[in-house]
Every structure is written in C-alpha cells, then in structure tokens.
UniProtKB/TrEMBL annotation:
Domain called Phospholipid/glycerol acyltransferase: residue spans: 75-193
Protein name, UniProt field: 1-acyl-sn-glycerol-3-phosphate acyltransferase
TM helices/strands, residue ranges: 7-27
UniProt-listed SUPFAM superfamilies: Glycerol-3-phosphate (1)-acyltransferase (SSF69593)
Origin species: Candidatus Alloenteromonas pullicola
Pfam families attached to this UniProt entry: Acyltransferase
Mitochondrion found in the keyword field: no
Single GO BP term: phosphatidic acid biosynthetic process
Keyword list, A-Z: Acyltransferase, Lipid biosynthesis, Lipid metabolism, Membrane, Transferase, Transmembrane, Transmembrane helix
Keyword set includes Lipid biosynthesis: yes
A molecular-function term among this protein's GO annotations: 1-acylglycerol-3-phosphate O-acyltransferase activity
Amino acid sequence: MKRFLKITRLVIILGWRIIAAYFGWVIRYSNHPEKYPLQLRYRKVHELLDAVGRAMRIDWRLYNAERLLNRQKGTLLVANHLSVCDIVALLYLCEEPISFVSKVEVRKMPFVGRCVRILDGVFLDRDDPRQAIKAFRTVEKRMAEEGLSYVIFAEGTRAKGEKEGAVLPFHPGSFKIAYRAKAPILLYAESGTQRILGKGNDRRHLVQMSFLPPMPYDEYKDLQTVDLAPIAHERVESEFDRLLLEDAEYYKAGMQKQRINDPGKEAHILRKAADEAR
C-alpha cells in the first residue's frame, strides 16, 4: 500500500511531464534510437530523471564520485544490484552518456526498459549462451569504437529473502567485456536504492554510492576472469558493508523522518566541480 502511495505521489507531482515525455519522445526514441544522436537521447533521459530523482526525495551521500564523472571513455562499471532504481540513480547522477547491460526481463518494463533501449543498452539472457555472446560483442564494439561506458550488475540478480542485504557472488563472465575491449573497470558499491519505491513511509531516502579506484587494463590483463571476479566482489562487498554501517547510523538518528529541503543538491554540486576539473 505504501509503495502504491509513493508511486501515486510521483504521478501527482510529475504525471503530466512523464506522460508528455512518454508519448512525445520515449516511444519514438526507443523504437528507432539509431535515428537520433546519442547525446540528444541521453540529455532527454537525464533531464527527465533529474526531475524524478528530486521528486523521490533522495538524500544523497556520494563518495569519490569524480571517478564516475571523470572516467575514461569506454569504461566498464561493475556494481552490486539492489533494485530497478539502481539504473535511475546512476542516470540521474551522470550527465555524460552511459548505458547498461541489463537482464532480458528489464526490456518488458514500460518505462525503464524503454530508457535502456534509448541509451543503446543491451539485454542479456543468461539462459541463452548464443544470445549472451552476441550481446557482449555488441557492447565490446560500442565501447571500443564509440567510447561508450557500460554498467553491468555482475551478481546477475538482486539479493532476496535471507540473502537480502548481501552482495552475491559475481559472475566471471561479466568481466569478459572488459578483457575483449581492453577497458578500464570502475567498481562501485551502492546502498538504499531499494527503499526509493519500497514499503516504508519515510520523508527522505538515504542513497549512498561509493566509487572505488579504477582498474586499468594492465592491472588485470594477466588474470583469468574466474580470478578477477572474486577480487572485484571482495572490494565491492567491503565497501558495501561500510555503507551499511553509515546507513544504520542514519536511520538510528531518525534522519529519514526529517523533511529534505533541497533533494539532489549534493549531486548538482558534484557535477559542477567535476566539470571545472576537466
């Protein structure tokens, strides 16, 4: 019921804008992305999600996010996976084009699925090896030739039930893209995105994202994917555990009950600082 109320509130605040965008350009861009420049498509999605992010009353805590905003072209980003809002959060934060390797089920989601298609995202069916190979090759080509960065959630699924709140083992195959494209890898950990449309009735939602030092190709090229995956997992899990401690302190102090005055302020300050540093 509370999740329904959150969605209803979002529709009341931004319903007209979301509907206008959906029928004005989302359908058109997602059906024929090749007809429109990526910069244009990304800007439209980013501007819409900037408004959505503010309406969701997110209280951001960002750590070393300049590593994201000033990343090298053609970077593979690898993170833990909490909810579909993981995609929304990263697109809200990042002004330069970035795309996703998503599980095939995301394609069916009316809004998020179309946004992934608009941004040259690729849908992965792990139960179909041939399709997975084709999807990976598409990503490798775009990373190498176009310099587009991609995000992959290496767990392959969200932690649920008793495993919720843990970082599941990373699939070694998720890293093959980086090897073939000789791409830098940017690991990051995130927490709190599952609450954005969750069942709680908080006035603000703490979302934390922490970006670890980039791994250049030379750092991992001599490792096998089965060796790299647990190394990456340990780094992300360790940072995720730290974020959970921060998260617990935040909610213990009752911060979630306080009204947030300027949602997104920290993200906008960070973007400006990153632009000036370029």
